[in-house]
Amino acid sequence: MASNSKANARAEKAAAERAAQAKREARRRFLTIGGVVLAMLLIVGGAIIASVVQNNKNNAKIADAASGRSDYGVTIGPDDAPHKVVIYEDFLCPFCGELEKRTRDDLARLAADGKVQVEYRPFDLLSQLGDYPIRAASAFSVVLEESGPKVAKEFHDLLFENQPSEQDPGSVTNDDLVDLAVEAGATEADVADAIRNVSNEDWVTEATAEAQKAGVTSTPTIVLDGDVFTDGRTIDDQAENLIAALD
Amino acid sequence: MNGTLAWVGLLARLVTGGVWLVAGALKITQPDASINAVRAYQLLPSSLAEAVGLALPGVEVVIGLALVLGVFTRGAAVLSALLFTAFIIGIASVWARGIEIDCGCFGGGGADPGASSAYPWEIARDAALLAASLLVVWVRRTRLALDSVLFEPRATGAAQGDGN
């Protein structure tokens, strides 16, 4: 009898110890898992926060650059228009061509109605594919200088309508550029030599430096009233949403 | 046999985890490029593309760390397999739609003419990494995983009743 209760007490004590041990084990496990999860969340969260901050900073930089008038662009629409759109583009970039195709007529109409001021800022993003972006932007600036903004805008439109493919940027030659400039309304004698010699390459370099300084890393970059406009899944969606936002 | 598998599992962990670490680290400092890369797939609405572009590099680094160190190995491997599946679908989808973009796998991204010639190889690479991830999921216990240090119940204790 006595030895029996002694054995019981021993068994109880052992059970209690086992339970305490299990509890410690569970606690340790909980803390370890918690610690690892916390470390993971910190890495992901930290990276996201840092990225958002950097991204906002960059967007603010672009917005800031877009708030003034650039020396390296052509503008349509009145200064007192309720909306201002800045479009950074490369004459070779296919998405820019697509955006142009989808928005040109509407933007021209809205600008004529005084609803928006649009500034097109061409620069060189893609010259690693061929010198076309430099030749085209240089020709654009020659036309802008010699024949004024109206003809330059027309020339800009024609450049996108006759955009070469990225695979074969050389298919539009300097002679073709002269022809397009004349078609846009430039006097051949004024622009032909400068276009053929890519005389305004410096202008392109400066325009590109300005775009880079503004933090523009892709084309087309659309800035609507100070905010980088990215609303839309595809470039066509974006074009549609942009016009809808202005109309 | 099990021993060999555990070592193969370690190799799969290190290779896959290493790729994640490199891919994530290259992108983590360039949120803009990362967002552009996601956007270039033209699969996600813009705001979602931005969220994914911002979050993905951090997630990649964590998966990489988890796999290399062997912490939450199985969960990380499942996540890794899911992401590779998503990437394969993404690349196949741009390929099918005739969109030519840099996959943005290791930074970069955006339109890239002539990129479609790289698609088969990119898909093959991701498929191989997907297989490696699934292997880790299947093997469960791989060699030199921190999991076994962190979560193995302590063998000492109750049996000896160390009197503390």
How would you describe the overall organization of this protein?
The complex is a heterodimer of chains A (247) and B (164). By secondary structure, chain A is α+β, with helices and mostly antiparallel strands. Chain A folds into two domains: 1-67; 74-246, 3-Layer(aba) Sandwich (Glutaredoxin), CATH 3.40.30. Chain A is built from seven helices and five strands. The radius of gyration of chain A is 31 Å and the shape is elongated. The relative contact order of chain A is 0.15. Chain B is mainly alpha-helical and 164 residues long. Chain B has one domain (2-143). Chain B is built from six helices and two strands. In chain B, strand 1 (101-102) and strand 2 (110-111) form a beta hairpin. The chains are: A alpha+beta (247), B mainly alpha (164). The interface between A and B is large, with 38 and 37 residues.
Mean of all residue-level pLDDT scores of chain B:
87
Structural class given helices, strands, pairing of chain A?
alpha+beta
Greatest interface by residues involved: A-B, 38 and 37 residues
In whole angstroms, the N-to-C terminal distance of chain B is: 41 Å
CATH arch. level architecture of the largest domain in chain A: 3-Layer(aba) Sandwich
Biggest beta sheet summary of chain A: 5 strands, mixed
Number of helices of chain B: 6
Strand percentage of chain B: under 5%
Number of strands of chain A: 5
Strand sequence of the main sheet of chain B, in spatial order? 1-2
- By CATH reckoning, the class of the largest domain in chain A would read Alpha Beta
How is the biggest beta sheet of chain B arranged?
Answer: 2 strands, antiparallel
Structural class of chain B: mainly alpha
Write down the overall mean pLDDT of chain A: 91
Total strands of chain B:
2
Brief synopsis:
Chain A has 247 residues and is α+β, with helices and mostly antiparallel strands. Chain A has helices spanning 2-67, 94-112, 132-161, 174-184, 188-196, 201-213, 235-246; strands spanning 74-76, 83-89, 116-122, 221-224, 227-228.
